[in-house]
Amino acid sequence: MVSTHPTGVQHSGSQYLPQRRDINANPSPNQELLPLTARVHNHDSLEIAGCDVTTLVEQFGSPLYILDEETLRSACQQYRDAFKQHYKGESQVLYASKAWNCLAVCAIAASEGLGIDVVSGGELYTALQAGVSPNKIYLHGNNKSREELVLAIESGVTIVADNWYELRTLVEIAGEQGSRGAGGAREVNSPSSSPSPLPIRIMLRLTPGIECHTHEYIRTGHLDSKFGFDPNDLGEVFTFVSQQPTLNCVGVHAHIGSQIFERQPHQDLAAVMVQWLRDAGKYGLNITELNVGGGLGIKYTESDDPPSIEEWVKAICEVVQEACAVENLPLPKLLSEPGRSLIATACVTAYTIGSSKVIPEIRTYVAIDGGMSDNPRPITYQSVYRAVVANKMSYPLTQTVTIAGKHCESGDILIKNALLPKTEPGDILVVMGTGAYNYSMASNYNRLPRPAAVVVANGEANLFLQRETYQDLIRQDSLPERLKI
Ligand code: PLP
């Protein structure tokens, strides 16, 4: 059956193209399904940033992650500019690089003036190797190892302290560094002629008691989360930190969830955090940074309706400014750390269609050459995606099929109900919105090599993550002599 609009217009893959509502408008990437530069050319072919998607697959292989540089840069700029426009104090946007941590993405974000939030030694190492300035890197984690902490301290990045164990470990490490003469503790905020890892620059992560589940949120005094200090312990934590000459606590941090469409939860969070700032003063702490985390949602399907980047930023800035005015506090440096809304829409994954299986009256499976190893979100979170056929963009959408991955796992289904034109082997299926938590969560399950990734801009494509080879798959293997056959 051919699918039609209520207006009688036939649906085709072109319906997912970015909506140019107003030629001067700057579309918010998180409100689109395809990257901002997506177009249809030669009537039926999808191109991104002037690169034909089918040709990219011929050139770089399949599956292929295709990252649109303009969409990523535009999202970075929209965050940065929105804070500049709506916040009277200093601000800093951090890219939550867990969404996709690699050299090229860190470099693009940093070149747009963003800092980088990292959650492990590996992510930290990558950000540093990408050339990101340590004073714009923030290290998270609920169980950072001693090695990770030492790397962070010696690199001069800010550590977002998560719990008592970590605070005590930091004080211990600082003691060791000090006695080894690694700069020694100096007065907090005092200028130093030589770079010194001490005092260690930290923020405190707190669990605010605001929990968001996309369409609803509840408030609890004590939130069940593995992350952060309980706000009921605030006084004790502030007292401890204020007594440590080797720790320089510059701010507070909280993150309430992901893929959030409402503004109210973050506004409530911002108001609570200003109270924390006020309370810190009572314990002699001069806290000047406030990080509201990430969480703005994106449009994965037509029915998703997130606010624009600017609307989200404005809502938070207003609350912080009002609350600070009420409390008679100077405006803190305001940080946020979006991941998904910066990069998800900038990337699509192109697959080649292979086998199919028709079960009359029940379902048609169409299989692709990737699946849960390159996108584990559907099997992990039941995430819903949309797809188009890159070489049939103007064909009518005539069938609803289930897109199956190639893994030896019945649950390896990328899209349960995909509305597509009639497909055949060799067609290129493009899954949209795959920039966040896809490559970064990819695995070698079933020993599938990870796909390549290219960044496209102005008709040019550059490889930034090589396709893994079978040789790569056994790089860490060894065969003890006595097991050889
Ligand atoms: N900050 C922290 C501490 C997080 O845990 C996350 C995601 O889980 C983010 C930022 C980024 O969130 P999002 O990708 O939803 O913007």
General description of the model:
- This protein has 485 residues and is of the alpha/beta class.
- It folds into 2 domains: 169 residues, Lyase, Ornithine Decarboxylase, Chain A, domain 1 (Beta Barrel); 274 residues, TIM Barrel.
- It is 27% helix and 23% strand.
- Strands 4, 15, 16, 17, 18, 19, 20, 21 and 22 form a 9-stranded mixed β-sheet that branches. It has an 8-stranded parallel β-barrel with strand order 5-6-7-8-9-12-13-14, surrounded by 6 helices.
- Helix 3 links the parallel strand 5 and strand 6.
- Helix 2 runs parallel beside helix 9.
- The N terminus is likely disordered.
- The site of pyridoxal-5'-phosphate (PLP) has 16 residues, from helix 10.
* Share of residues in helices: 25-40%
Structural domain count: 2
Overall geometry comes to globular
Name the CATH superfamily assignment of the largest domain.
Alanine racemase
- CATH domain fold name of the largest domain: TIM Barrel
Distance between the termini: 57 Å
pLDDT < 50 runs, ≥5 residues = 1-9, 183-194, 214-222
CATH class of the largest domain: Alpha Beta
Largest sheet: 9 strands, mixed
| Bound ions, cofactors and other small molecules, one mention each | pyridoxal-5'-phosphate
Strand percentage lies at 15-25%
* Broad structural category: alpha/beta
The whole-number mean of residue pLDDT values reads 92
Q: So how many helices?
A: 12
Question: Quick one: how many beta strands?
Answer: 22
Under the CATH scheme, the architecture of the largest domain is Alpha-Beta Barrel
What is the CA-based Rg, rounded?
Answer: 24 Å
